[in-house]
Amino acid sequence: MDYRHLFSDDEVRQEFFDRFDEVADGAAGLDGFESVDGGITVDRAVDAVERMAEGNWVPGNSGLEAIIERFVRPVHLVQRSTFVLPEDGRVTSRKVAARVERARRPLEAAIPCVGRIDLRNHAMRWVGTGWMVGPRLVVTNRHVAETFARGTGRGFPLRVFGTGRPVRPTLDWYREYRRPEESRFRVTEVLWIEPDSGHDVALLRIAASGEDGEAPPPVIALDTAPARVGRWIAVIGYPGYDIRANTADQQRIFDGVYDCKRLAAGLITAVEGRDVVHHDATTLNGNSGSAVIDLDSGKAVALHFAGAADGRSNMAVPAAAVARIVRAHGR
To answer: Are the C-beta atoms of residues 121 and 174 closer than 8 Å to each other?
Structure first.
């Protein structure tokens, strides 16, 4: 998470201070927030906001960063291919909510095109996120695909473990909060896994129809223009509990709800040439392979692949790089 951009909008910063009593009351009365170190005071919040804006905030166990993150970068639940904030009594920015609401139509078009990669004959039930980038063509991360496939120099066969049977990956386009419906598509072929020297990208071919005979979702268009810092985006994917991250903060931000489809808005915070786009939407490890959607166009501007080692930034592969890989290997 790059905290410097959380309050880049002066109106959002002022809204946080104006509604601080609501923020504190909502946080103090819910599980996970009652033991915030040192208590929730306006003086501590002012200091935290100033340090974040200056780039001097050091993440710790105070709980304040989670409270602030919930206010300016909340994570929406997805149900019936639309999105809603959790009804948990925690206060979020009305200004940020209004910005996301204006993009409801393009976001609702993209949501059904993002799926969870489930695994059979594997110790893991699921491994990450993928989304439609061409007819029967799914894009995800290299490090996701390498969980169930390997490069041999003559293709990318599925791995075989102790059972003697190959792993069977599927894409489920639902896996929504408290919704039992499924829409499973078998991965028929791993078309491409980028080498370690390339981008963190892999391409999968899925079956022409799902297990219940349904057609694949539509394709999410790629915005191959250079990404611009300050653009609003939304990450659509499947955050899962991360044993490496702070347990209490995860609870504070995600309400203990993991492994299902979520939508998290944020800003593009930096661009590293043609290689990496940085953003500050709220993510966890299961978001690997998520679609990063521009709120204005509804197109994908990037493929999320990681948070930085210091926890201060999320990283994604630019859509232009994804498009080049699709052209070269998405036969």
So the answer is: no
**Cβ count near 13 (within 10 Å):** 18
| CATH code where residue 186 lies | 2.40.10
The residue with greater pLDDT, 30 or 49, is 49
Residue 123 lies in domain: 116-206
Task: Give CA–CA dist 107/90, Å, rounded.
Answer: 23
Q: What is the pLDDT of residue 33?
A: 47
Q: Tell me whether residue 175 is in a domain.
A: yes
For the cut 90, the answer to whether the pLDDT of residue 51 exceeds it is no
Assess if residue 161 is contained within a domain. yes
Q: Let me know the angle formed at the C-alpha of 229 by 224 and 235, rounded to the nearest 5 degrees.
A: 70
Number of domains in the chain: 1
pLDDT band with cut points at 50, 70 and 90 for residue 35? very low
Q: Over the range 200-229, which residues count as b (16 or more CB within 10 Å of their CB) and which as e?
A: bbbbbbbbeebeeeeebbeebebbbeebee
Q: What is the pLDDT of residue 249?
A: 79
Q: Is residue 73 part of a domain?
A: no
Q: Is residue 169 part of a domain?
A: yes
DSSP string, 289-306: T-EEEETTT--EEEEEEE
Amino acid at 17: F
Cβ–Cβ < 8 Å for 284, 237: no
